[in-house]
Write a structure and sequence with these properties.
73% of the residues lie in helices and 5% in strands.
Amino acid sequence: MQGTKGIILNALKGSAMGIAEVIPGVSGGTIAFITGIYERLLNVIKSIGPDVWHAWRKDGLKGIWKAMDGVFLTSLLIGMVAGIGIGVFLITYLLETYPLFVWSYFFGLILVSALFVGREIKAWNGKRILGVTIGAAVAYYITVAVPAPGNPALYFVFISGAIAVSALLLPGISGSFILLLMGMYSYIIPTVKEALKTFQPDQLIILATFGSGMLFGMVIFSRLLSWTFKNYHDATLSVLTGFLIGSLNKIWPWQEVLETMTKESGDTVVVFSRSVLPGAFESLQDNFLYGNDSKIMGCILLMLAGFFTVLAAEWIATKLQRS
């Protein structure tokens, strides 16, 4: 029964990661960290390559299954696929319909996540504070950078997958937002949606290319992160804490929309926006998608809900581990 509980719990964590990765500004790496599977996931990803080859030569398929932590990885991937499906269809709808409430919830979630990551640092000193500052500055710059024009060429789709998945592994930096900055979000996400619905060959080729880029980036970047955790544990955590703090600017609920784009389907989407205070938000005119009603009480309540969601998740995980 304990094994079944673990599988279900890992699938739920994977589902949360998948949902997070569809939302520009929220990182699947953050979810992995606050649910306690971050370093385990890095070790599994790192095993892809020579370790798997050696395990195959020594013990065949059984060796590969063991080397890649098969039960954990399989349950996590199943959950992630389900989460991506939920994110593509449900979360995108909620973001289009109730953007202030959705962003408020995630703001609370990421804020408490920064506290959780920082809590794991064993010894605070000037270098750790500098690491937090650098991480926050880098993440903040990413949130205010102007998006680049996209490129539908397959080689760029591959590069986009590699870079986006590298961001996925970093708490606080969203793979979806990196795609947005590269000008690829409005191209990749609808393609994934249509590929899952229609299985058209041209869309499946794009999906496979993007997936191959993700696999490549995952293998390379996981090794780098695993090495930094092993040799510079607290320094790595301080930078990751900074990433989370700096990313809060992107998921601040009150946004002034500065640039929009009309897709081939005729739908208009936000390309670039900036954070403003609720008072300034209420004075905006023709603010696409967000409007100018700050809904401040509802937003504050949802920030608190996001904050306490993480606390509740930690409490439940602790209870399950003890049982």
